[in-house]
Write a structure and sequence with these properties.
The chain is mainly beta. Helices cover 8% and strands 49% of the residues.
């Protein structure tokens, strides 16, 4: 009987011990290592050369601004290309587009046309068009600039712009140009308020590699 009482007492202590409060948790373990970086996305743009410059204008508050830009990316070979034409003399046409990698609306497009000299060198262009667009946040407000031309091109005449230091190395395809273009207020679209009488100046340089466009292969009909 005494043995039975001892067993009951031992069982009671065991049950009380099970109901006792648990101790504080131990210290946290070390952090695990970071996961591997994801793969870079595939870009369809090509970085090659640049069209850099400055947009200068006077805003509606009569504040003179000078906004730098540099566009270095193209979307296809057609945006870095020249072609030679024959007929009434020999002349060339050059198409160049460079844009911002993150915003397709920020771009500068040039088209040049001029004579090919008898020695194969390219003379300075007698005709050129430009399509320029720019966007930036200035004083917490969005500023946008664009040519006021629904067709996307705005012809440069030598009365309102100058193309100088034109040089094309046909062996390497390197083209360098200095440009200075004056826009009248009627040629400009501002996204912010303006008084309609503020002109703008676009000036800078171009340094890119262009490729000669190959004539399509002629296959005679059978």
């Amino acid at each position: 009987m005494k043995t039975l009482y001892l067993l009951l007492i031992a069982l009671s202590f065991a049950m009380v011990s099970c109901r006792a409060k648990q101790g504080d948790p131990g210290p946290a373990g070390a952090n695990g290592s970071n996961g591997a970086n994801g793969a870079d996305g595939v870009s369809t743009l090509t970085k090659q050369g640049s069209i850099a410059g400055t947009l200068g204008y006077v805003n509606y508050k009569d504040s003179a601004l000078s906004l730098p830009f540099s566009y270095e990316y193209s979307e296809s070979l057609a945006q870095s290309e020249y072609e030679v034409y024959t007929g009434d003399g020999t002349y060339y046409g050059i198409n160049i587009t460079r844009r911002d990698p993150k915003d397709s609306e920020k771009k500068l497009i040039f088209y040049f046309e001029g004579n090919v000299n008898s020695d194969g060198t390219f003379a300075s262009p007698y005709y050129a068009t430009v399509d320029f667009s720019y966007a930036a946040v200035i004083n917490n407000s969005l500023f946008e600039f664009d040519d006021n031309d629904n067709d996307g091109d705005d012809a440069i005449s030598f009365d309102t712009g100058n193309i100088t230091n034109f040089a094309l190395d046909t062996a390497t395809g390197r083209l360098t140009v200095t440009y200075d273009i004056q826009y009248s207020a009627s040629d400009i679209l501002y996204a912010d308020q303006y008084d309609g009488s503020t002109p703008a100046t676009l000036s800078g340089s171009l340094d890119v590699i262009i490729n000669r466009k190959k004539a399509p292969l002629y296959v005679p009909a059978p």
